[in-house]
Amino acid sequence: KKRKKEKAADEINLIEVGEHIQSSRRPSIAMVTEGKIDSSSDSDQEEICDKCRGPCIQHKLQRTYPQVRTYIGTSNTVCHMMKEKRSLCCLKLDEKCAHKSATSAHEYQWRNRPIILAADRTSSGMYNLIIPLRAYYRPVHDLHPIILLLELEEQDSLNEAFLDAISYFPDIYWMKGKIGNLDCLLKAGVSSAE
């Protein structure tokens, strides 16, 4: 009797399929839940991500083509892009701004080891290196921060078009410095770099 009651309770939860079908197989339709599922615990889990050690970066990203196409070569690649453009002040690794207080790679406490790219100036080749490192087929939690160490003179500033282009990519930063200067390399995170 107990088994009949359990079976009857299970059948109540199933979507009705015609009574006229005589078969020993069960229908391939899943059970329907009777009540509303409480999603408050799910939203709490979405806020904290074990891999990100805080709010999950995946909620801030979308898979799309890069918005700024000034530096793109011949092929378009779908990339992990920020839903909202990052402030240009937040791109500079070694300076505080209203949005962040970190001034060195160590202070950011990234989940992955950074990649440092040293160059004397910005170019389309640099942008074309960034594209595959942010391509859609890479898992979001495996994206490495990219630090652009640029040998700019004190009076030189970074090209606004380039800054605008990289501001849509997650975890890309830049700083003035020389590859021969140990202080610059340490600020860029060379001790933990890929």
UniProtKB/TrEMBL annotation:
Say yes or no: keyword Electron transport present: no
UniProt xrefs under PANTHER family: CALCIUM-ACTIVATED POTASSIUM CHANNEL ALPHA CHAIN (PTHR10027), SLOWPOKE 2, ISOFORM D (PTHR10027:SF10)
The record lists the organism as Caenorhabditis japonica
Keyword flag Transmembrane: yes
The residues covered by the RCK N-terminal domain are: 113-194
Matching InterPro entries, A to Z?
Answer: K_chnl_Slo-like, RCK_N
Coiled-coil stretches = none
List the Pfam families hit by this protein, alphabetically: Slo-like_RCK
Protein topology in the membrane: Multi-pass membrane protein
GO terms for CC? plasma membrane
Location comes to: Membrane
In alphabetical order, the GO MF annotations are:
intracellular sodium-activated potassium channel activity; outward rectifier potassium channel activity
- Identify the coding gene: slo-2
Source organism lineage? Eukaryota, Metazoa, Ecdysozoa, Nematoda, Chromadorea
What name has this protein been given in UniProt? Answer: SLO-2
Alphabetically sorted, this entry's keywords are:
Ion channel, Ion transport, Membrane, Potassium, Potassium channel, Potassium transport, Transmembrane, Transmembrane helix, Transport
